[in-house]
């Protein structure tokens, strides 16, 4: 990533930290930057900013920088950081919150992860259950990776792991309704 | 003993052998698993990355269904499903949240259903003696790296065992006559959530775990999670390439090892549905008891 302008704070930085506290129960003012979260992070090697740095960014009011970093999409939600944090900041929850807020603000850096989540939830909303094959095929096509993992398909087919048709539950409407009701609670926004 | 059973989407697809082996092993142990009628996907891992309400509501419909059918203990093989259902269960203990979620799922939710991992059910609800009674082919000499992954033991509020040094699976393997190896990567993340979106990162994370299991002298790996297994088994070739060494470690669901020790036929357990050939190691090791 490029250089960070320390003066480039977004006006609503207090507001953003208040939102993290209220909606996601994570109080970033508790963090004293010990770095235990990042020392144990198994995905840190693939991040340009570690979770400690991202928390620092939000503390400093660099909200937009934190929301647009690719690193939040490399977090595997393993919760090692939250388990070890001596200040109960729940860094994994912060990363999750940043992903959700990035999506709301239209600032998702990793378009593939975004596409994956959309297709995943579409499948669940349509059938009540996840259709793995449908998800993988749609994801590979729409993300331009047509032949990704294609060599794994024949063995999986033989093993009976690839179900060509989606499995739907009887009361699909009930699950679709959950999606609708959540949206309604959010005032129509996703 | 009667439990609600929540197989989850993976056990109908990529984790098919986990479902097969869990079902036959539970039957042997007189554990009655009653599938929750018309269960839906728990939303892992996309719902909790999209909306916190949706993340609680999708699993909550299953909790409500379980309550309706009087199945208050829900046994869950998949580690991801377990974590999502548990998180939802804990969230709806708060009356305010329970009311909000009940409105969203349009079902009555009492907060009575308990999400339980099948590993924890086998460990806590059965005595070692009960498991030992069924062992006809002890796993003598089999060195097993018990890999727990993240979702069953982290974060602490949902953990079924110690977050850093769990032993539930190790104890079961010992009861089956096998030898769990000491190693440091028991709960290190395999990158399951990145398996499709960031294959490069997932392969590196998987490679580390496989490498250390090998260095610990294991003959195979045992897991309680379909996402871990997909990564460790399906992506093992890619991991070998990244490491530049041969690994060749079969990756079993712990239930497949239980079934093998119980004398259940390999194909009934789904041992033919692996990427790294999994049948011959167990054929060579298991000798009938008393020999």
TrEMBL record, chain A:
Ranges of residues in domain 4Fe-4S ferredoxin-type: 22-50
Database matches in PROSITE patterns: 4FE4S_FER_1 (PS00198), 4FE4S_FER_2 (PS51379)
The entry's keywords: 4Fe-4S, Iron, Iron-sulfur, Metal-binding, Oxidoreductase
GO cellular component entries: plasma membrane
Domain of life: Bacteria
Annotated GO MF terms: 4 iron, 4 sulfur cluster binding; metal ion binding; oxidoreductase activity
Keyword DNA repair applies: no
Name the record gives this protein: Heterodisulfide reductase subunit C
Organism: Heliorestis acidaminivorans
TrEMBL record, chain B:
Domain Cysteine-rich stretches: 4-85, 144-233
Annotated keywords: Oxidoreductase
Signal peptide start and end residues: none
Pfam families (UniProt xref): CCG
Domain of life: Bacteria
MF-aspect GO terms: oxidoreductase activity
Protein name stated in the entry: Heterodisulfide reductase subunit B
């Amino acid at each position: 990533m490029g250089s960070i302008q320390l003066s480039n704070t977004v006006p609503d930085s207090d507001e953003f930290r208040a939102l993290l506290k209220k909606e996601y129960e994570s109080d970033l003012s508790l963090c004293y930057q010990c770095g235990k979260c990042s020392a144990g992070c198994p995905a840190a090697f693939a991040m340009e900013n570690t979770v400690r740095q991202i928390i620092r960014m939000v503390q400093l009011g660099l909200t937009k920088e934190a929301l647009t970093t690719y690193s939040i999409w490399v977090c595997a939600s393993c919760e090692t950081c939250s388990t070890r944090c001596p200040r109960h900041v729940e860094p994994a929850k912060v990363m999750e919150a940043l992903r959700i807020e990035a999506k709301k603000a239209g600032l998702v850096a990793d378009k593939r992860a975004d596409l994956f989540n959309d297709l995943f939830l579409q499948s669940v909303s349509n059938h009540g259950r996840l259709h793995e094959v449908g998800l993988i095929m749609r994801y590979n096509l729409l993300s331009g990776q047509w032949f990704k993992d294609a060599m794994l398909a024949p063995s999986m087919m033989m093993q009976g792991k690839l179900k060509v048709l989606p499995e739907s539950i009887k009361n699909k409407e009930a699950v679709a309704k959950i999606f609708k009701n959540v949206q309604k609670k959010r005032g129509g926004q996703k | 003993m009667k439990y609600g059973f929540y197989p989850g989407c993976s056990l109908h697809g990529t984790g098919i052998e986990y479902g097969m082996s869990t079902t036959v092993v539970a039957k042997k142990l007189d554990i009655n698993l009653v599938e929750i009628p018309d269960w839906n996907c728990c939303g892992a891992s996309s719902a909790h990355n999209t909306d916190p309400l949706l993340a609680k509501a999708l699993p909550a419909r299953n909790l409500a269904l379980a309550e309706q059918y009087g199945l208050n203990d829900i046994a869950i093989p998949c580690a991801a499903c377990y974590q999502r259902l548990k998180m939802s269960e804990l969230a709806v203990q708060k009356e305010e949240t329970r009311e909000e979620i009940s409105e969203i799922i349009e079902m009555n939710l009492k907060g009575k259903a308990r999400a339980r991992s099948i590993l924890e059910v086998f460990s806590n609800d059965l005595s070692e003696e009960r498991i030992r009674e069924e062992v006809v082919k002890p796993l003598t000499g089999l060195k097993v790296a018990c890999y727990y992954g993240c979702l069953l033991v982290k974060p602490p509020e949902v953990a079924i065992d110690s977050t850093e040094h769990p032993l539930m699976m190790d104890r079961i393997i010992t009861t089956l006559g096998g030898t769990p190896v000491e190693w440091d990567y028991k709960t290190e993340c395999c990158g399951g959530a990145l398996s499709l979106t960031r294959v490069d990162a997932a392969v590196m994370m998987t490679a580390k775990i496989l490498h250390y299991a090998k260095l610990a002298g294991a003959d195979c790996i045992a897991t309680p999670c379909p996402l871990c297994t997909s990564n460790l088994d399906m992506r093992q070739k890619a991991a070998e390439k990244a490491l530049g060494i041969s690994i060749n470690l079969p990756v079993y669901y712990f239930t497949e090892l239980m079934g093998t020790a119980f004398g259940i036929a390999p194909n009934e357990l789904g041992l033919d549905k692996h990427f790294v050939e999994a049948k011959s190691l167990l054929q060579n090791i298991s000798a009938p008891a008393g020999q």
